[in-house]
Amino acid sequence: xxxxxxxxxxxxxxxxxxxxxxxxxxxxxxxxxxxxxxxxxxxxxxxxxxxxxxxxxxxxxxxxxxxxxxxxxxxxxxxxxxxxxxxxxxxxxxxxxxxxxxxxxxxxxxxxxxxxxxxxxxxxxxxxxxxxxxxxxxxxxxxxxxxxxxxxxxxxxxxxxxxxxxxxxxxxxxxxxxxxxxxxxxxxxxxxxxxxxxxxxxxxxxxxxxxxxxxxxxxxxxxxxxxxxxxxxxxxxxxxxxxxxxxxxxxxxxxxxxxxxxxxxxxxxxxxxxxxxxxxxxxxxxxxxxxxxxxxxxxxxxxxxxxxxxxxxxxxxxxxxxxxxxxxxxxxxxxxxxxxxxxxxxxxxxxxxxxxxxxxxxxxxxxxxxxxxxxxxxxxxxxxxxxxxxxxxxxxxxxxxxxxxxxxxxxxxxxxxxxxxxxxxxxxxxxxxxxxxxxxxxxx
Length: 444
Prior knowledge:
444 residues; five-stranded antiparallel sheet
Protein backbone atom coordinates (compact mmCIF):
# COMPACT_ATOMS: atom_id res chain seq x y z
CA UNK A 1 0.00 0.00 0.00
CA UNK A 2 1.94 3.01 -1.25
CA UNK A 3 2.29 5.91 1.18
CA UNK A 4 2.81 9.60 0.33
CA UNK A 5 4.59 11.69 3.00
CA UNK A 6 4.41 15.51 2.87
CA UNK A 7 6.66 17.37 5.29
CA UNK A 8 5.25 20.64 6.53
CA UNK A 9 7.58 23.60 6.04
CA UNK A 10 8.95 25.30 9.15
CA UNK A 11 9.35 22.13 11.17
CA UNK A 12 5.66 21.18 11.36
CA UNK A 13 4.57 17.56 11.71
CA UNK A 14 4.68 15.45 8.54
CA UNK A 15 1.36 14.50 6.96
CA UNK A 16 0.93 10.85 5.86
CA UNK A 17 -1.56 10.00 3.11
CA UNK A 18 -2.67 6.51 1.97
CA UNK A 19 -2.52 6.75 -1.83
CA UNK A 20 -4.89 3.82 -2.23
CA UNK A 21 -7.65 6.11 -1.06
CA UNK A 22 -7.37 7.98 -4.33
CA UNK A 23 -9.01 5.11 -6.22
CA UNK A 24 -6.17 4.90 -8.78
CA UNK A 25 -5.12 1.38 -7.93
CA UNK A 26 -2.01 2.09 -5.92
CA UNK A 27 -0.52 4.85 -8.08
CA UNK A 28 1.44 7.58 -6.26
CA UNK A 29 -0.48 10.41 -7.94
CA UNK A 30 -3.29 11.63 -5.66
CA UNK A 31 -6.42 13.10 -7.09
CA UNK A 32 -7.27 16.82 -6.91
CA UNK A 33 -9.26 16.47 -3.68
CA UNK A 34 -6.32 14.89 -1.91
CA UNK A 35 -3.99 17.52 -3.35
CA UNK A 36 -6.16 20.23 -1.84
CA UNK A 37 -6.23 18.39 1.49
CA UNK A 38 -2.47 17.94 1.53
CA UNK A 39 -1.94 21.64 0.80
CA UNK A 40 -4.41 22.56 3.53
CA UNK A 41 -2.77 20.26 6.06
CA UNK A 42 0.69 21.59 5.14
CA UNK A 43 -0.49 25.17 5.52
CA UNK A 44 -2.05 24.41 8.90
CA UNK A 45 1.21 22.78 9.97
CA UNK A 46 3.15 25.84 8.91
CA UNK A 47 0.78 28.20 10.76
CA UNK A 48 0.97 26.05 13.87
CA UNK A 49 4.77 26.03 13.71
CA UNK A 50 4.93 29.80 13.33
CA UNK A 51 2.49 30.34 16.17
CA UNK A 52 4.34 27.96 18.45
CA UNK A 53 7.67 29.70 17.74
CA UNK A 54 6.13 33.10 18.41
CA UNK A 55 4.57 31.88 21.65
CA UNK A 56 7.82 30.27 22.77
CA UNK A 57 9.69 33.46 21.95
CA UNK A 58 7.25 35.53 24.01
CA UNK A 59 7.46 33.16 26.97
CA UNK A 60 11.27 33.16 26.95
CA UNK A 61 11.36 36.94 26.64
CA UNK A 62 9.00 37.36 29.60
CA UNK A 63 11.02 34.94 31.71
CA UNK A 64 14.26 36.73 30.91
CA UNK A 65 12.78 40.14 31.73
CA UNK A 66 11.43 38.94 35.08
CA UNK A 67 14.85 37.47 35.92
CA UNK A 68 16.53 40.77 34.97
CA UNK A 69 14.22 42.66 37.33
CA UNK A 70 15.52 40.41 40.13
CA UNK A 71 19.15 41.01 39.26
CA UNK A 72 19.76 37.95 37.03
CA UNK A 73 20.63 38.57 33.38
CA UNK A 74 19.71 35.49 31.34
CA UNK A 75 21.68 36.42 28.25
CA UNK A 76 21.17 33.08 26.48
CA UNK A 77 17.42 33.24 27.12
CA UNK A 78 17.15 36.67 25.49
CA UNK A 79 19.19 35.42 22.51
CA UNK A 80 17.03 32.29 22.14
CA UNK A 81 13.84 34.36 22.27
CA UNK A 82 15.05 36.50 19.37
CA UNK A 83 16.38 33.49 17.43
CA UNK A 84 12.89 31.96 17.47
CA UNK A 85 11.36 35.09 15.95
CA UNK A 86 14.19 37.11 14.36
CA UNK A 87 11.99 39.40 12.24
CA UNK A 88 9.93 40.74 15.15
CA UNK A 89 11.24 44.30 15.57
CA UNK A 90 9.21 44.94 18.71
CA UNK A 91 10.73 41.95 20.49
CA UNK A 92 14.22 42.98 19.45
CA UNK A 93 13.65 46.42 20.94
CA UNK A 94 12.14 44.89 24.07
CA UNK A 95 15.08 42.55 24.56
CA UNK A 96 17.64 45.24 23.73
CA UNK A 97 16.20 47.63 26.28
CA UNK A 98 16.06 44.98 29.01
CA UNK A 99 19.67 43.96 28.36
CA UNK A 100 20.80 47.60 28.34
CA UNK A 101 19.09 48.22 31.67
CA UNK A 102 20.84 45.12 33.04
CA UNK A 103 24.21 46.41 31.85
CA UNK A 104 24.85 43.79 29.13
CA UNK A 105 25.63 46.33 26.42
CA UNK A 106 27.35 44.02 23.94
CA UNK A 107 24.49 41.50 23.74
CA UNK A 108 22.02 44.39 23.45
CA UNK A 109 24.05 45.74 20.52
CA UNK A 110 24.04 42.33 18.80
CA UNK A 111 20.26 42.11 19.11
CA UNK A 112 19.49 45.69 18.01
CA UNK A 113 22.03 46.02 15.18
CA UNK A 114 19.90 44.17 12.54
CA UNK A 115 17.24 46.88 12.99
CA UNK A 116 19.46 49.49 11.31
CA UNK A 117 18.21 48.50 7.85
CA UNK A 118 15.03 46.73 8.92
CA UNK A 119 12.43 49.44 8.63
CA UNK A 120 11.68 52.89 7.32
CA UNK A 121 11.37 55.21 9.16
CA UNK A 122 14.08 53.97 11.55
CA UNK A 123 12.92 51.68 14.35
CA UNK A 124 12.48 53.35 17.77
CA UNK A 125 15.32 51.23 19.12
CA UNK A 126 17.91 53.05 17.02
CA UNK A 127 18.42 55.80 19.59
CA UNK A 128 19.19 53.17 22.22
CA UNK A 129 21.53 51.35 19.84
CA UNK A 130 23.49 54.57 19.28
CA UNK A 131 23.76 55.08 23.05
CA UNK A 132 25.03 51.52 23.46
CA UNK A 133 27.58 51.88 20.68
CA UNK A 134 29.02 55.02 22.25
CA UNK A 135 29.14 53.39 25.69
CA UNK A 136 30.71 50.24 24.22
CA UNK A 137 33.55 52.11 22.55
CA UNK A 138 32.12 52.15 19.02
CA UNK A 139 31.88 55.92 18.62
CA UNK A 140 32.55 55.97 14.87
CA UNK A 141 29.83 53.39 14.21
CA UNK A 142 27.39 55.27 16.43
CA UNK A 143 28.07 58.53 14.61
CA UNK A 144 27.75 56.93 11.16
CA UNK A 145 24.41 55.27 11.99
CA UNK A 146 22.91 58.50 13.33
CA UNK A 147 24.19 60.53 10.40
CA UNK A 148 22.83 58.15 7.76
CA UNK A 149 19.40 57.37 9.21
CA UNK A 150 16.54 59.56 7.98
CA UNK A 151 14.81 60.92 9.89
CA UNK A 152 17.40 60.98 12.66
CA UNK A 153 16.34 58.85 15.63
CA UNK A 154 15.73 60.59 18.98
CA UNK A 155 18.71 60.35 21.32
CA UNK A 156 19.45 61.20 24.94
CA UNK A 157 21.09 64.50 26.00
CA UNK A 158 24.32 62.60 26.74
CA UNK A 159 24.45 61.18 23.21
CA UNK A 160 23.37 64.50 21.67
CA UNK A 161 26.34 66.17 23.37
CA UNK A 162 28.68 63.48 21.99
CA UNK A 163 27.24 63.86 18.49
CA UNK A 164 27.57 67.66 18.53
CA UNK A 165 31.23 67.36 19.48
CA UNK A 166 31.88 64.92 16.63
CA UNK A 167 29.99 66.98 14.04
CA UNK A 168 32.02 70.06 14.92
CA UNK A 169 35.27 68.13 14.93
CA UNK A 170 34.71 66.21 11.69
CA UNK A 171 32.54 68.09 9.24
CA UNK A 172 31.21 71.60 9.79
CA UNK A 173 29.29 71.48 6.49
CA UNK A 174 26.79 68.90 7.80
CA UNK A 175 26.37 70.55 11.20
CA UNK A 176 23.49 72.87 10.15
CA UNK A 177 21.38 69.83 9.16
CA UNK A 178 21.32 68.46 12.72
CA UNK A 179 21.99 71.63 14.76
CA UNK A 180 18.45 72.41 15.85
CA UNK A 181 17.40 68.91 16.91
CA UNK A 182 20.61 68.10 18.80
CA UNK A 183 20.78 71.44 20.63
CA UNK A 184 17.08 71.15 21.53
CA UNK A 185 17.82 67.77 23.12
CA UNK A 186 20.79 69.03 25.14
CA UNK A 187 19.02 72.21 26.29
CA UNK A 188 15.65 70.59 27.00
CA UNK A 189 13.59 73.04 24.96
CA UNK A 190 12.18 73.06 21.43
CA UNK A 191 14.16 75.66 19.52
CA UNK A 192 11.70 75.63 16.61
CA UNK A 193 8.88 77.33 18.55
CA UNK A 194 8.03 81.00 18.09
CA UNK A 195 8.84 81.74 21.75
CA UNK A 196 12.34 80.29 21.34
CA UNK A 197 13.09 82.14 18.09
CA UNK A 198 15.45 84.72 19.67
CA UNK A 199 17.54 81.89 21.14
CA UNK A 200 17.42 79.95 17.87
CA UNK A 201 18.83 82.97 16.07
CA UNK A 202 21.68 83.15 18.57
CA UNK A 203 22.53 79.47 18.31
CA UNK A 204 22.51 79.44 14.50
CA UNK A 205 24.96 82.29 14.06
CA UNK A 206 27.97 81.26 11.97
CA UNK A 207 30.29 82.63 14.66
CA UNK A 208 28.44 80.98 17.58
CA UNK A 209 31.47 79.15 18.98
CA UNK A 210 33.50 82.35 19.24
CA UNK A 211 30.78 84.13 21.27
CA UNK A 212 30.48 84.02 25.08
CA UNK A 213 27.39 81.79 24.84
CA UNK A 214 29.15 79.46 22.39
CA UNK A 215 32.19 79.11 24.65
CA UNK A 216 30.02 78.35 27.67
CA UNK A 217 28.04 75.83 25.64
CA UNK A 218 31.22 74.09 24.46
CA UNK A 219 32.38 73.76 28.08
CA UNK A 220 28.99 72.37 29.16
CA UNK A 221 29.00 69.85 26.31
CA UNK A 222 32.31 68.58 27.65
CA UNK A 223 30.91 67.38 30.99
CA UNK A 224 27.49 66.46 29.61
CA UNK A 225 29.07 64.06 27.11
CA UNK A 226 30.67 62.02 29.91
CA UNK A 227 29.08 58.96 31.50
CA UNK A 228 28.34 59.24 35.25
CA UNK A 229 31.39 58.10 37.24
CA UNK A 230 31.53 54.95 39.32
CA UNK A 231 30.65 55.64 42.94
CA UNK A 232 32.04 54.47 46.22
CA UNK A 233 29.22 56.08 48.18
CA UNK A 234 27.23 53.79 50.46
CA UNK A 235 23.68 52.89 49.47
CA UNK A 236 22.29 54.94 52.34
CA UNK A 237 22.90 58.72 52.18
CA UNK A 238 24.46 60.22 55.32
CA UNK A 239 21.66 60.65 57.87
CA UNK A 240 21.35 63.97 59.71
CA UNK A 241 22.83 63.95 63.20
CA UNK A 242 20.21 63.62 65.93
CA UNK A 243 22.41 65.83 68.09
CA UNK A 244 22.39 68.60 65.48
CA UNK A 245 18.63 68.17 65.02
CA UNK A 246 18.20 68.64 68.77
CA UNK A 247 20.33 71.78 68.67
CA UNK A 248 18.18 73.23 65.88
CA UNK A 249 14.99 72.36 67.77
CA UNK A 250 16.35 73.49 71.11
CA UNK A 251 15.53 70.19 72.82
CA UNK A 252 17.27 66.95 73.78
CA UNK A 253 16.70 64.21 71.23
CA UNK A 254 17.50 61.35 73.59
CA UNK A 255 15.25 58.47 72.58
CA UNK A 256 14.41 60.02 69.20
CA UNK A 257 14.87 57.98 66.02
CA UNK A 258 15.02 58.53 62.28
CA UNK A 259 12.83 56.38 60.04
CA UNK A 260 13.80 55.08 56.60
CA UNK A 261 14.84 57.45 53.86
CA UNK A 262 11.66 58.44 52.01
CA UNK A 263 13.50 59.74 48.95
CA UNK A 264 14.31 57.52 45.97
CA UNK A 265 18.01 57.24 45.15
CA UNK A 266 19.04 60.20 47.26
CA UNK A 267 22.67 59.09 47.10
CA UNK A 268 22.50 59.00 43.27
CA UNK A 269 24.10 55.58 42.90
CA UNK A 270 21.40 54.26 40.53
CA UNK A 271 21.76 55.62 37.00
CA UNK A 272 19.20 54.76 34.31
CA UNK A 273 21.34 54.33 31.19
CA UNK A 274 18.34 54.10 28.86
CA UNK A 275 16.76 57.35 30.11
CA UNK A 276 20.11 59.05 30.80
CA UNK A 277 19.26 60.21 34.30
CA UNK A 278 19.53 59.22 37.93
CA UNK A 279 16.63 57.00 38.99
CA UNK A 280 13.97 58.99 40.83
CA UNK A 281 15.05 62.41 39.52
CA UNK A 282 13.48 63.91 36.39
CA UNK A 283 14.82 67.02 34.64
CA UNK A 284 12.58 70.07 34.94
CA UNK A 285 12.83 72.88 32.39
CA UNK A 286 10.91 76.13 32.93
CA UNK A 287 12.82 78.27 30.46
CA UNK A 288 11.00 77.96 27.15
CA UNK A 289 10.20 81.65 26.47
CA UNK A 290 6.49 81.34 27.34
CA UNK A 291 5.26 81.63 30.08
CA UNK A 292 8.84 81.69 31.42
CA UNK A 293 11.78 83.74 30.26
CA UNK A 294 14.16 82.08 27.86
CA UNK A 295 17.06 80.35 29.51
CA UNK A 296 19.94 78.22 28.29
CA UNK A 297 20.37 75.38 30.81
CA UNK A 298 22.33 72.14 30.62
CA UNK A 299 21.26 69.51 33.17
CA UNK A 300 22.61 66.08 33.95
CA UNK A 301 24.46 63.66 36.21
CA UNK A 302 27.95 64.75 37.20
CA UNK A 303 30.69 63.82 39.64
CA UNK A 304 34.26 62.66 39.91
CA UNK A 305 36.11 59.42 40.51
CA UNK A 306 39.14 60.95 42.22
CA UNK A 307 38.99 61.80 45.91
CA UNK A 308 36.64 62.97 47.11
CA UNK A 309 34.43 60.62 45.07
CA UNK A 310 30.89 61.90 44.63
CA UNK A 311 27.87 61.85 42.35
CA UNK A 312 25.66 64.86 41.90
CA UNK A 313 22.83 66.52 40.04
CA UNK A 314 24.33 69.40 38.06
CA UNK A 315 22.64 72.49 36.63
CA UNK A 316 24.58 74.85 34.36
CA UNK A 317 22.80 78.07 33.46
CA UNK A 318 24.62 79.58 30.49
CA UNK A 319 22.30 82.48 29.75
CA UNK A 320 19.07 83.70 31.38
CA UNK A 321 16.70 86.43 30.17
CA UNK A 322 14.86 88.66 32.65
CA UNK A 323 11.86 90.18 30.88
CA UNK A 324 9.44 91.53 33.54
CA UNK A 325 6.43 90.36 31.52
CA UNK A 326 7.44 86.71 31.90
CA UNK A 327 8.06 84.40 34.85
CA UNK A 328 11.67 83.82 35.91
CA UNK A 329 13.49 81.14 33.94
CA UNK A 330 14.67 78.14 36.01
CA UNK A 331 15.63 74.51 35.59
CA UNK A 332 16.61 71.60 37.81
CA UNK A 333 15.63 68.14 39.03
CA UNK A 334 12.27 67.03 40.41
CA UNK A 335 11.43 64.10 42.68
CA UNK A 336 8.01 62.44 42.59
CA UNK A 337 5.50 63.40 45.34
CA UNK A 338 6.17 61.97 48.82
CA UNK A 339 3.16 61.51 51.16
CA UNK A 340 3.43 63.10 54.61
CA UNK A 341 1.57 62.38 57.82
CA UNK A 342 -0.03 65.18 59.78
CA UNK A 343 1.88 67.01 62.53
CA UNK A 344 4.94 64.74 62.28
CA UNK A 345 8.35 66.45 62.05
CA UNK A 346 10.42 65.55 58.99
CA UNK A 347 14.10 66.19 58.32
CA UNK A 348 15.09 67.00 54.73
CA UNK A 349 18.82 67.35 54.09
CA UNK A 350 21.22 67.66 51.16
CA UNK A 351 24.57 69.14 50.19
CA UNK A 352 25.07 71.74 47.46
CA UNK A 353 27.75 73.95 45.99
CA UNK A 354 27.85 76.73 43.43
CA UNK A 355 30.40 78.31 41.11
CA UNK A 356 30.13 81.70 39.39
CA UNK A 357 26.59 82.31 40.65
CA UNK A 358 24.97 85.07 42.66
CA UNK A 359 22.97 84.57 45.85
CA UNK A 360 19.67 84.02 44.00
CA UNK A 361 20.68 81.12 41.75
CA UNK A 362 20.42 77.87 43.77
CA UNK A 363 17.03 77.08 45.31
CA UNK A 364 14.79 74.32 46.65
CA UNK A 365 11.03 74.06 46.15
CA UNK A 366 8.91 71.44 47.96
CA UNK A 367 5.33 72.74 48.10
CA UNK A 368 3.06 75.60 47.11
CA UNK A 369 1.32 75.57 50.51
CA UNK A 370 2.84 77.41 53.48
CA UNK A 371 1.54 74.85 55.98
CA UNK A 372 3.16 71.92 54.14
CA UNK A 373 6.87 72.51 54.90
CA UNK A 374 7.03 75.96 53.25
CA UNK A 375 5.61 77.58 50.14
CA UNK A 376 7.56 78.43 47.01
CA UNK A 377 11.29 78.49 46.39
CA UNK A 378 13.80 78.94 49.18
CA UNK A 379 16.96 80.56 47.81
CA UNK A 380 20.37 79.27 48.84
CA UNK A 381 23.39 81.54 49.06
CA UNK A 382 26.38 81.16 46.73
CA UNK A 383 29.14 78.89 48.07
CA UNK A 384 31.95 79.83 45.65
CA UNK A 385 33.07 76.26 45.05
CA UNK A 386 32.68 74.77 48.54
CA UNK A 387 30.07 72.21 49.61
CA UNK A 388 27.50 73.32 52.18
CA UNK A 389 25.01 71.18 54.10
CA UNK A 390 21.34 72.11 54.24
CA UNK A 391 19.10 70.72 57.02
CA UNK A 392 15.37 71.48 56.99
CA UNK A 393 13.05 70.45 59.83
CA UNK A 394 9.42 70.93 58.90
CA UNK A 395 5.87 69.65 59.39
CA UNK A 396 2.70 69.00 57.46
CA UNK A 397 0.48 71.46 59.33
CA UNK A 398 -2.34 71.44 56.81
CA UNK A 399 -4.72 69.37 58.98
CA UNK A 400 -4.93 66.64 56.33
CA UNK A 401 -2.62 64.19 54.55
CA UNK A 402 -0.41 66.03 52.09
CA UNK A 403 2.75 65.51 50.06
CA UNK A 404 5.90 67.31 49.00
CA UNK A 405 7.79 67.01 45.70
CA UNK A 406 11.37 68.25 46.21
CA UNK A 407 12.64 70.29 43.28
CA UNK A 408 16.32 71.26 43.34
CA UNK A 409 17.06 73.93 40.77
CA UNK A 410 18.77 77.11 39.62
CA UNK A 411 17.48 80.53 38.61
CA UNK A 412 20.70 82.28 37.65
CA UNK A 413 23.81 82.05 35.50
CA UNK A 414 26.52 79.73 36.82
CA UNK A 415 26.83 76.12 37.99
CA UNK A 416 25.01 74.41 40.86
CA UNK A 417 25.47 70.85 42.19
CA UNK A 418 23.27 68.84 44.62
CA UNK A 419 24.10 65.51 46.33
CA UNK A 420 23.43 63.29 49.40
CA UNK A 421 19.70 64.02 49.48
CA UNK A 422 17.51 62.46 52.18
CA UNK A 423 14.13 62.82 53.89
CA UNK A 424 13.45 61.15 57.25
CA UNK A 425 10.57 61.26 59.69
CA UNK A 426 11.61 62.03 63.26
CA UNK A 427 10.20 59.36 65.58
CA UNK A 428 10.08 58.78 69.32
CA UNK A 429 9.33 62.43 69.96
CA UNK A 430 6.29 62.25 72.21
CA UNK A 431 8.42 63.15 75.19
CA UNK A 432 9.92 66.13 73.38
CA UNK A 433 6.60 68.00 73.36
CA UNK A 434 7.27 69.42 69.91
CA UNK A 435 4.46 71.58 68.59
CA UNK A 436 4.30 71.97 64.79
CA UNK A 437 5.86 75.25 63.72
CA UNK A 438 7.32 77.08 60.75
CA UNK A 439 10.10 75.28 58.93
CA UNK A 440 13.60 75.50 60.38
CA UNK A 441 16.21 75.87 57.61
CA UNK A 442 19.88 75.60 58.51
CA UNK A 443 22.80 76.00 56.07
CA UNK A 444 26.38 75.47 57.17
